[in-house]
Amino acid sequence: MNRISACIITLNEEQNLPRALASLAGVADEIVVVDAGSTDRTAEVANEHGAAVFSRNWSNYAEQKNFAAERAANDWIFSMDADEELSSLLHTSLLDWKKRKPESPVYEVSRKTWYLGAWIKHSGWYPDFQRRLYRRGAAQFSGIIHESLRFDGKPGRLSGDLLHYTVHSFEEHQANVDRYSTLAAQQMFAQGKRSWRGAVWFATPWSWFQNFVLRGGFLDGYRGALISQMAARSVRLKYTKLGKLIASKRRMGVANS
Question: Helix, strand or coil for residue 168?
Answer without folding.
Answer: coil
